[in-house]
Design goal:
8 helices, single chain, 259 residues, 57% helix, 5-stranded antiparallel sheet, alpha+beta
Length: 259
Amino acid sequence: MEENLSLFSSSDVERYINDYAIPWGINIAMAIVIYVIGRIVVGFILSLFRRLMAKSKYDAMLVDFLEAIISAILMLFVIVASLNQLGVDTTSLVAILGAAGLAIGLSLQDSLKNFAAGVMLLVFKPFKSGDFVEAAGTAGTINKIGIFTTTMTTPDNKEIIVPNGGIYSNNITNYSAKETRRVDMVVGIGYDADLRKAKEILNEMVRADDRILSEPAPTVAVSELADSSVNFVVRPWCKASDFWGVKFDFTEQVKLRFD
């Protein structure tokens, strides 16, 4: 035992402390300081981000998701800086993470496309929950706008889940975006019918419907001399919520008045 202790002289112990223990201790302490300060800075940045997003009134799901991504990226920088202080070669670590990210991105490119489209939908808001839209070959009322998919309910009460990539890469028709809509109808009469009388009746019908707006002014005009009929276009304006009621009721009244 005494022989083993004699192998380490006081000078050896001192050299070990000076060459290894103290430098490693300083590096470990500095790495801890970098990590702690980094956590504080990340927390401050995320707090500032939340305040900015609260003022912009973006969707809560988008804000939470972006906050998680920003937090992960910033903490990765903090961890890499801490490891670098410990003397760990972070170059190879960053290269491995980059290669893994590339591989994951290639395997999930469709999902990433839907994610990117979901972010754009939540940021630019071409429609909101409750709007009736036509997008990606589907028409329905928007129930929920998610990061990857949008849920819609069709007029016959079917729930359809549409990938966001399909929505954002095609035309979007939002029937609820404006408070008013124009109802386009075509009414045909025979060539032997009284043209002026028919036009007068159509104008009376337009004026009699309280749901039809006076401004913009409705249009009743001859649009076509077809093979077997003279066609009128009837284009009244109404509130968007009254669109189908006006269209169906007016069509029914045309049949009743012209019989």
